[in-house]
Records
---
Amino acid sequence: QVQLVESGGGLVQAGGSLRLSCAASGINFSFNVMGWYRQAPGKQRELVAAITSSGSTNYEDSVKGRFTISRDNSKKMVYLQMNSLKLEDTGVYYCKSTWLSYNYWGQGTQVTVSS
């Protein structure tokens, strides 16, 4: 059974930092592309950052230079370090794994940035 479990969300003031974690099980983690997505109220879910099995990364333009995605294949974990948070970073953050045509999502963790 595949499980992706996010943690680390919460309430933070603008300019602050949070580190999200995603624990994976039931997948061959090292082969999967792992991604973080977010969904703001009333908006579509969007890709924030992704990391391939080889460690290549890509970021949504608005988070470049502020967010860092990383992975630990030995622990089957993926992380999102979020610095200099802005109000517009508020949303539910989801972890996603992709391998071939197989896609799995976590349940999400809420990130709220306050002024």
---
Amino acid sequence: QVQLAESGGGLVQAGGSLRLSCAASGRTFSTYAMGWFRQAPGKEREFVAAITWSGGSTYYADSVKGRFGISRDNAKNTAYLQMNSLKPEDTAVYYCAAQRGIRGTTALLRRHEYDYWGQGTQVTVSS
């Protein structure tokens, strides 16, 4: 069982930056792949970024590629999402999620493949 807690959201102007953190409980954090998803009002939750258990591979949605960076510190049981050059369309609730086992690249992109979710943190980008 893993419990996840996001932090770092807030209000920022377009072009600004934020870093989200996802703190995980438990001793097995390093065995989970981690993902970030977001959900804007009236829209489905969508994939943003993912990182494998070792941190050796990362994946991004096309809409954030080159602007966002996902990372993890297994010693601190924490995953991060660095968001730069933020746009109003990045406004959403951001969720971190953990995936057990090694299921392949496609599974990292699919929200239904994740086993544990945080409560979310609001990110609002003003124009």
